[in-house]
Amino acid sequence: MSGTTLEGALGGLHLRREGEGPPLLLLTGVGGRTDFWEAQIDRLRHTHDCISFDHRPAGDPLPDDPKAAAAFLADHALRVMDTLGLEQADILGHSFGAAIGQHLAVHAPGRVGRLALSSAWAGPAPIFLELFRLRKEVLRNCGPCEYYTQAAFISNPGWWNHARFEAIVTGAAQRANDFHGTEVECHRMDAVTGHDLRSQVGRITAETLVIAARDDVVTPLPMSEELAALIPRARLEILETGAHMSPVTVPDAYAERLTAFLNR
Q1: Out of 5-19, 142-156, 191-205, least confident range
Q2: CB atoms within 10 A of CB 65
Q3: First-to-last C-alpha distance (Å) of the chain
Q4: DSSP secondary structure letters along 14-74
Q5: For the whole prediction, is pTM greater than 0.85?
Q6: Cys-Cys with 218: which of 18, 51, 162, 244 at CB 3.0–4.6 Å?
Q7: C-alpha–C-alpha distance, residues 77 and 73, integer Å
């Protein structure tokens, strides 16, 4: 099954499912789309039943309290699993998807097999908060096209951006045409900076892998190191490059670390 829509209680949630093997739920963050995982699904579908979802048909409604967003979206993930009849799945969460994965592992441990978290953090750091404050300033004062261009510049390695500059500019303009509103995007950023499970991730019992890129400036390496140190027996894998978007920018290196963990 690929590119289907779940109706009913899930409100038209868009789902992608591809591959055979143990179920693997791939989680993106707020505003994320299943196509973010294209390169990884292509590499994992031979060994895993890859499942990812987004909110394309109905937008990304979040609770008024941004600090409740990760738990809210973790509930979406559990309802996807329930709808598909999955009692348990391995979880792969990237960026804010990793925040969702942490909530699943803390609050629904029986539903989580192995847990892989990339470009992740347990709670905000001063540099993280300042970066997102600046990103809001760019959005409010310069507009969505500049905001999306900046996002690419800080999320990808410099060598990646240099080779794809024209595509980045074109893509930012296309995304700006479909922009959902400044306050909605700022609320999403508040959800990101509001995630803080430092006091709870020590309860995670799932076998855990934390993947980080040394050149990630959005979630700097020390934030992933802190998360790995707080989760009992977590394993930390450091990519030399790839930046915040390592599943896309260095897909082979990322998949190598991930599959070695999932196939143990």
Answers
A1: 5-19
A2: 12
A3: 26
A4: EEEEE-SSSEEEEE--TT--GGGGHHHHHHHTTTSEEEEEE-TTT-----SSGGGHHHHHH
A5: yes
A6: 244
A7: 6
